[in-house]
Amino acid sequence: MQRYTLNDNRNKHVEDFQVRDNLIATLKNRFTTYGYKQVRTKAFENYEMYSDITGTVKKDDMIKVIDTTGKILVLRPDVTIPITRMMTAVNQTDDAFWQRLFYVLDVFRQSQEQPNQKESTQAGVEFFGENSPEADAEIIMLAIHTLKDLGFENFKIEIGHAGFFKELIQQAALSEQDLQQLQALIQSKNIADMELFLQGMPIEKELKHAIQSIPLLYGEPDQVIQQAEKIIRSAHMQHVLQNLIDVYALIKDYGVDEYVAINLGLINNMNYYTGIIFQGFVDRIGQPVLMGGRYDHLGEQLNKEMPAIGFAFEVDLLIHAILEQGLAKSLDPQVDAVIYYTDEKQQEALTAAFKIRNNGYRVLSFRNDSSNGNILPAKTIIRFEEKQNLFSNNRIEKPFSQTDELITLLQNYREGY
Fold this sequence. Notes:
Number of helices: 13
Helix content: 25-40%
Strand order of the largest sheet: 1-5-6-12-11-10-7-9-8
Strand content: 15-25%
Order of helices and strands: HEEHEEHEEHEHHHHEHHEEEEHEHEEEEH
Low-confidence stretches: 2-7
Structural class: alpha+beta
Distance between the termini: 47 Å
Number of strands: 17
Largest sheet: 9 strands, mixed
Mean pLDDT: 88
C-alpha cells in the first residue's frame, strides 16, 4: 500500500462535514449489527483516574484544567479507561458480566510532535466479559467489515500480541530507559542500530538473536508463524503464539484473511494491552486509522477483574482517506423544493412549508420580491401567486389549490411517477 504523511489542512469544507456525518452513520450502523450499544462519557474527567493507572496516556500529553474548587481535571484523553471504570462500577458482583458498547467521542491530547493537533474524534467499540479467540476474531472481523462498508479495497489489519514481546523482554531484564529505546528501534525497524544497541547488553546470545528477529516477524501469517516458532523460549510464548494461530484460523473461516498480516513487532503505546493487539492501515495514509487490542488487566486497576477487548477508528484520518481516494458518496446539493410567494399568499405559503417539512422534505421559502430575483437550484419550484399556485419540475408543471395535493405531487415525484 502507498502511504504518505498528512498535513493539518483537513476537514475544513462544508462538504467534509457531510462526509463526516455519512461516515459516522455508516460506523454506527455496522457496530449495531454486531450487537453494540452506544454510550458516552464526560468530557472533563478526574486527573487521578488517568494518572493512577499504569500504561495509559502520558501525563504530559494530557490537557489539564483547574475548576473553581482548585481540583485538577483533564479533558478526556482516552475513552477506554472511563468506559472500563463505568463497567467495573456496575459489575462489582456479577461475575458473568457481558457487554458490548460503542462510542463516537472527541479525545484531547497534546504533544511536541503535533503542537497544533489537540483534538480528534474516535469511534470505537469495547467488548467486556469474554476472553476467547472467537471474541478476538469477531472484533477484528468487525474492523474489516467496517472498512469494507466505507469503500476501502486496499487495506491491511496488522495483528500482533502484547505477550510475545513482553515475554522476551522480561527474560532480558532491561531497564525502563533501555526498554523504551529498544521499543523505538523495533517500531522503526532499525535493524542496524538495534544490533549495535544489543551488542553492549549483558544478554545471552540466543536471546539477543530472538529479540533481533522481532522486527522481521511481519507479513504473510503462515510464514510469520513458522518463523516465530523458531524463537520460542518458554511455554508462555508457545501459549501466546497458539492464541495468535487460533485467532487467525477463525479469521480465515470468516473469509477475510486476505486483509490480515501478522506483525509481532507491533508495540502499542498504551501498555495496558495484554493479548492480541492490532492496527489498521488504508492506502495513501501514513498512520493507522484504527488501533486496538485486548486489555484484560485494566479492570484490575479499577478493582474488578474483567476481560475486555476493543478498538477505535480515528475519524479524521478516515475522512481524509475517503476524500483522498474519492470514496465519498455523491452529495445532493439541491433542496427538494423552493417556495416563492406573494405578500397576499404569505400565510398560505408558510403553512404549506411547515407541513411539507413535517413530511421530511428539505424546503426553502422566499417572498417573491425584487430582493429574491435569482432562482435557487431545487428539484421542484413551488409558486404561491395571486391567480394560482403552481408546482413545477423537470417532469411536470401543474396548478394546485390545497397543501395535501401539493404533498401528493412531491411524493409522486420522489417515487418517480
